[in-house]
Amino acid sequence: MDDDAAAAMYRTRTGAVTTDRGDGGPVVFAHGTLMDRTMFRPQLEALAPEYRAVAYDLRARTDQYAPGYDLDDLVEDCDALLDGIGEESAVIGGMSMGGFMALRFALAHPERVDGLILIDSMAAPHEAEERETYGQLVEPLEGSTDPNPRSLAEGVTGYLFGETTREENPELVAEWVDRWATYPGAAVYNELHSWLERPDVTDRLSEIDVPVLIVHGEEDPSIDPTRAEPMLEELPDARMELIPEAGHTSNLERPEPVNEAIRSFLEERF
């Protein structure tokens, strides 16, 4: 099924684009802040021979980045995505912000979730100091349709990539910096504010009764792996895989071990 046919209903409602590969059981991926659906290309290529692997652009990468929105809006967008690709339910995977959304999607629409894959994410909110730092970082971008300043795009690499990637794979980092420098400022401002003040959902994790895989880069500079560990205690059926030499975008920085963990999770649980 080509992208246009698979996502017609979703695009009509949200303006987003999907990449849809393979046939089998569906696995849907939602990206994190500043990223887009292409960050999951390694996972789609690895899973397509056995599964229907789908990645989609969230609101910030479409012309619907303004006005402001929140994670509940992104939850309903994901609901529309499943309608658009004709699936009643799927394994939902999310990286960082995508994981924040995926947890809330599982709570709001449990009948549509067969399992969760949480990549470099957490259930708790960011600390007050972090929220202030992030808020100040994007404050100059509010309402701007101009591209992000390149200095900002270069400055956030330390949040998104691990030390090993920044040292050993500068081409990957530079590719994303070039992309970030093209985004409208307001798109980044609204994207970050969609989750910045999110409430804690840790006390509701026991309601999620599907299998959960937690994947986390050992070098994650934004969300230390220890901040994801509490989910293991609260989720009824969860396991965690640490990815060495990977940062906040572990599935992009070290796709091989991440793909192995995801395939093993899917083969064992579904």
From TrEMBL:
It comes from the Archaea. Keywords: Hydrolase. InterPro entries: AB_hydrolase_1, AB_hydrolase_fold, AB_hydrolase_sf, Epox_hydrolase-like. SUPFAM superfamilies: alpha/beta-Hydrolases (SSF53474). Transmembrane segments: none annotated. One of its GO terms (molecular function) is hydrolase activity. This is Alpha/beta fold hydrolase. Residues 27-261 form the AB hydrolase-1 domain.
